[in-house]
Amino acid sequence: MKRRWVWIVLALVAIGGLVGCWWWHQRREHRYDAAILAAARRYGVDPALVKAVVWRESAFDARAFGRAEEHGLMQIREDAAREWVDAERVTTFQLAHLFNPETNTLAGAWYLRKLLRRYDRTDDPLPYALADYNAGRGRVLQWNQGAAATNSRAFIAQIGFPGTQQYVHAVRQRQLHYQPQFAKASP
Prior knowledge:
It is a single chain. This protein is mainly α. It has 2 domains: 1-30; 33-185, Lysozyme. It is 68% helix and 0% strand. The protein is built from 9 helices and no strands. α4 (78-88) crosses α5. The model has no long low-confidence stretch (mean pLDDT 90).
């Protein structure tokens, strides 16, 4: 009988741990939804895409700082932030503001919109924009030769960095995962 109680207690502890992990994960993954939705609406970008980029870039860590000096949720670099600041005529900007979720998602959504528009003559601008976001415009210009200039499947096949191919695939899959959440709230 004593052994049975030990197993029951262990099972309850395990269940409690699983519930706690699930709760923490849900809280972490949804705490910036309002900022993501506001930024996506402001710039006419799919909020599921913005959230997928946040997921991939920082795992929802607003204090994330990358090796190439990327900042915050969407891992914005200083040059991209300065473009946003100039375009939006933001007068009181400091680089540290990129650790603010609202500021970061605004700059990131603006930048995504810019990249999506850059490749609007393709059959699907998203892979090009994501590759640009991850590896830079210079790399995209190397990879979008021939049929890959307008055909997104050919472009993905020509991406020379496996990490960038994985990035494009992971963000697209996660975007699909988040779309039901934002179905009623799309811009």
